[in-house]
Structure formats: structure tokens, C-alpha cells
Amino acid sequence: MDIQKATNFLTLTFLTLVLQACFQRKTEQELLDIALAHIDNKEYEKALGTYKKISNIDSVKIDGIYGQGISYSFMCDQNIDNCKNAISKFNEAINIDSTYKNLFYNRALCYFKLKQYTNAINDYNIAVNQEPTSADVIYGRALAYLFLTDSVSACNDLQSAIDLGFEYDIENFNNLCQKLAKKNPP
């Protein structure tokens, strides 16, 4: 009988530990890692849900808000309201810490997708001030200038981005700048 009691006690202890492990709260870093894995796997809705949980934790609140913005921005192509939601989340994060990560760059990308090129350029300008050697930021601003038909600024930014190592789509953009220069000489 004592062996039976010991076996029951060990079984109960084991089950208790298993249940505790299943329902144990994730650490902030574990939640951040899970959310990032969802982003990497293009599971943006799941990432959004995880980032919403993160935004309720004071020590990493801005990570959660920023992550929600990123999640929404990845879903802009599915629904334009996602771009508006992303901008709202980036605004919320900017109110907490305007120097956090790439807030202005990512908000500029959303403004660009909404065809709000002046707003995009304003954010790209702030992003360039925060990261003056970011070829991606400068290239993004070049595209926004191009859509506002400011070809001089667009081509100047393109050259700056190339000088900083930007390599994507350079040939097409350079051809366009050359055509614009021939049409509108200085």
C-alpha cells in the first residue's frame, strides 16, 4: 500500500509540474521572440496578437506597440486600413519615445503606401536625421520625391543612396534621372 501511495504522489507531482509548465507565463523576451518568429514566418495576425499582449507589459510596452505597427504595416497590401492602423500605432510609440528603433522610417513607408508623399518625406527627413547613413531611408525619400515630381531631389537622394551602398533597382532609377535631366536641364 505504501508503494501505491508513493506512486500516486509521484504521478500527482509530475502532473502538477506538467500543468504548471503548460500554463506558466512567458517572459517578456520569450513573447518578443515568439512575435518575431511570427513576423519571420509571415504570420502577421498571430504576430499582432502577441504584440498586443506585449504592449500590456510596462517594461516592454513600446516593443508591443511598435510591433503592432510593424504587423499592421506588413498587412497594408491586404487592406488599406491596416496602413492607417500601423500609422496610429507608430504615433502611439512616437509619443512614448520618438528615438525608438525605426519608427519614422516605418511610418514613412505607410504614408507612402497611402500616397501621402509629403507626410512620407517629412518622416523620411526625421529618419535621415536619426540615421544619416541609411541608404534604405534615403532611397525611400527619393521615391517619395519622385512621386511629388521633385526630380532634382529624387535624383540627388538616389545618388546619396548609391554612395552609401544601395544597389536595388539603381539602373532603372538612374535611367529615369537621366531622362528627367534631359527634359529639364538645370
Detail the topology: elements first, then pairings.
Blueprint: H1 2-23, H2 28-40, H3 44-54, H4 61-74, H5 80-96, H6 103-113, H7 117-130, H8 135-147, H9 151-163, H10 170-183
Helix pairs in contact: 2-3, 3-4, 4-5, 4-6, 5-6, 6-7, 7-8, 8-9, 9-10
Account of the 3D structure:
There is one protein chain. Helices cover 76% and strands 0% of the residues. The protein has 186 residues and is an all-alpha fold. The protein is elongated, with a radius of gyration of 24 Å.
Q: What are the main properties of this structure?
A:
186 residues, 0% strand, mainly alpha, elongated
Short description, anyone?
This protein is mainly α. It has helices at 2-23, 28-40, 44-54, 61-74, 80-96, 103-113, 117-130, 135-147, 151-163, 170-183.
Q: What assembly state would you assign to the polypeptide chains in this entry?
A: single chain
Integer average pLDDT:
86
Number of helices: 10
| Structural shape | elongated
In whole angstroms, the N-to-C terminal distance is: 99 Å
